[in-house]
Amino acid sequence: MLRVVVMVSGGGTNLQAIIDKTASGGITNIQLVGVISNNKTVKSLERAKAAGIPAVSVSPRDYENRELFHQALLEAVDGFSPDLIVLAGFLVAIPTAMVQKYENRIINIHPSLIPSFCGVGCYGLKVHEKALARGVKITGATVHFVTEGMDEGPIISQKSVEVEENDTPESLQKRVMEQAEWILLPQAIDDIANGRIAVENGRVIRK
């Protein structure tokens, strides 16, 4: 049974998709052991509580500097003894020490088709603003393993979503979540939990 910790910053719609898929049997062989947020007031903590999942908040505002915050964040993660860490809309850069300690055991969902609209400064609604400004006709979402480089880890899966003529950043964000993110992330967790994928030579292979 894979012990999974989900890290979130906002409302937790991807977290809810994971909870729902686990409850329905769409994700098997996992235990959701914890939820961690950098924000004390977000709905994601309520979603965790409603599902009976232990949840904690570790906010950088509570620490004098980033180093102390990173130490506390890693301690919170370690406290759940996870086999897999899922960044489901976690908008704070995680410490290098965490990436190194949990190598190939951290995955992230990004709301674009990497390598488009990714990297430093590309997160949340900003990704969709950039996609619309560029005039792309196809966007989507990507699930990837996390490395020290921003959005540079091995890609697990991607799904495309069409951009519509009258899209706003908000409407595009909603459709990418519904048509790609909420599908890809639960599937990736299930694949990892059931040994269907592995990382070899910096690339994801399917067994």
From TrEMBL:
InterPro entries: Formyl_transf_N (IPR002376), Formyl_transf_N_sf (IPR036477), GART (IPR004607), GART_AS (IPR001555). Keywords: Purine biosynthesis, Transferase. One of its GO terms (molecular function) is phosphoribosylglycinamide formyltransferase activity. The record marks D151 as: Raises pKa of active site His. Its EC number is 2.1.2.2. Pathway: Purine metabolism; IMP biosynthesis via de novo pathway; N(2)-formyl-N(1)-(5-phospho-D-ribosyl)glycinamide from N(1)-(5-phospho-D-ribosyl)glycinamide (10-formyl THF route): step 1/1. N(1)-(5-phospho-beta-D-ribosyl)glycinamide binds at G12, T13, N14. Pfam families: Formyl_trans_N. (6R)-10-formyltetrahydrofolate binds at R66, N108. It catalyses: N(1)-(5-phospho-beta-D-ribosyl)glycinamide + (6R)-10-formyltetrahydrofolate = N(2)-formyl-N(1)-(5-phospho-beta-D-ribosyl)glycinamide + (6S)-5,6,7,8-tetrahydrofolate + H(+). One of its GO terms (cellular component) is cytosol. The keyword Transferase applies. SUPFAM superfamilies: Formyltransferase. GO terms for biological process: 'de novo' IMP biosynthetic process. Transmembrane segments: none annotated. Coiled coil: none annotated. Residues 3-185 form the Formyl transferase N-terminal domain. The active site is at H110. Belongs to the GART family. Catalyzes the transfer of a formyl group from 10-formyltetrahydrofolate to 5-phospho-ribosyl-glycinamide (GAR), producing 5-phospho-ribosyl-N-formylglycinamide (FGAR) and tetrahydrofolate. This is Phosphoribosylglycinamide formyltransferase. The lineage of its organism: Bacteria, Bacillati, Bacillota, Clostridia, Lachnospirales. The gene is purN.
